[in-house]
Structure formats: C-alpha cells, structure tokens
Amino acid sequence: MPRRETYTTKVRCLDCANEGRATFNENENPVFTKGELDRITQAAGEGFELMPDAPFGLKCSKCGSSRVEQA
After folding, report:
1. Which burial class, exposed, middle or buried, applies to 60 when counting CB atoms under 10 A from its CB (0-12, 13-18, 19+)?
2. What digits encode the pLDDT tens for the residues 24-71?
3. Strands, E assignment, 4-67
4. How far apart are the first and last CA of the chain?
5. pTM attached to this predicted model
C-alpha cells in the first residue's frame, strides 16, 4: 500500500470568495500509483463543511456553493 501524505492548505469559495483552511491526504509518491493522487479531504476549517460529492470534498458554509478550490 502506498504511503500517504497529510497537509493543510488554504481553500477559497469561487462564488463568494470566502477563505479558510482544509486538511487533505493523498498518495505520497504518485509514481507508484500510476499518477493517481487519490486525494481525500480529512477536515474542513471554519467557514467550510465536508461534502464528499463535491470536487474538493468541501462546500462553503457562507453561500452553500461546492465550487471550492485550493487557494
């Protein structure tokens, strides 16, 4: 099984510009997994909620949008 890397980074809602932080983990070395990062959203910071079906696994608590990306 590939090793996993965990990191926290800024995230931003593309619809209302709300900013916060979220914690993700992904494959540490995608070379061994044919380029697949297999990113999983672990935690959402203030202003965001976990939403597994969203592209980054987050939704904005302020406006409800799932258009959230790493900032």
Report:
1. buried
2. 988 776 666 565 667 789 999 999 999 999 988 999 999 999 999 998
3. 4-13, 19-27, 40-44, 48-50, 58-60
4. 30
5. 0.79
